[in-house]
Amino acid sequence: MGTPAGDGVVRWWVQPGPAGELVVAATARGVCLVEWEAPGRGADPPERLVAVGRPVEERVPALADRWDAYADGDRTALCDVPVDLILAGTPFRVEVLTELKSLPPGRTVTYGELASRVGRPRGAQAVGGAVGANPVPVVVPCHRVMAADGSLGGFSGGLATKRALLAHEGLFVPEGGWVASHRDD
């Protein structure tokens, strides 16, 4: 696919998605930020981009095309999109998000199961913090992480958006929680 931006700047654009418009940003290493478009924000770059370089508004065609394909129904279009976790924070958060990136569309995992996968079987709450701080939702599919009781848990874009993304990926999630047969056991 080539490098998204090889000149040291951050590229960002507003991207249509299956559950509303998103601000997507990428460095030379990959997508570094996905935020839900704030109504009335205008063309200002997201504040979090100041930490990674001087943003330039410019679509990265190879990445934007993948987002378009995902929005058009290709559930796997974002699976191998590279990410740059420069905004993730701690090495633990990077580890959790890297593991979560491997979860395929149409599958879910609980915070506790994800904690076990990163070698912290009693670390569901810490994993929840890492997932909640995910700077690249949808690409790193934090919408696929559920609470142990089957409820949706939280999501930066809101629970209606989380439910819409899961439905877009072929999962029916009733108001009370997920369908257990779709969990990643």
CATH architecture name of the largest domain: Orthogonal Bundle
CATH superfamily of the largest domain: Winged helix-like DNA-binding domain superfamily/Winged helix DNA-binding domain
Write the H/E string, N to C.
EEEEHHEHHEH
| Strands, count | 6
The third-level CATH topology of the largest domain is: Arc Repressor Mutant, subunit A
Specify Rg, calculated over alpha carbons: 16 Å
Instruction: Give the neighbour order of strands across the main sheet.
Output: 3-2-1-4
* Beta-strand proportion: 15-25%
The end-to-end span amounts to 32 Å
**Total of helices:** 5
Mean pLDDT metric = 84
Assign an overall shape: globular
**Unreliably modeled segments:** 1-5, 178-185
**How many independent structural domains?**
2
Write up what this structure looks like.
This protein has helices at 61-71, 91-101, 111-117, 124-132, 159-168; strands at 10-17, 20-27, 30-36, 55-57, 109-110, 145-146. It folds into 2 domains: 10-71; 91-171, Orthogonal Bundle (Arc Repressor Mutant, subunit A), CATH 1.10.10. Strand 1 and strand 2 (20-27) form a beta hairpin. It has 5 helices and 6 strands. The strands form 2 sheets. It has a 4-stranded mixed sheet, with helices on one face. A two-stranded parallel ribbon has the order 5-6. Helix 2 (91-101) crosses helix 4 (124-132) and helix 3 (111-117) packs across helix 4. The radius of gyration is 16 Å and the shape is globular.
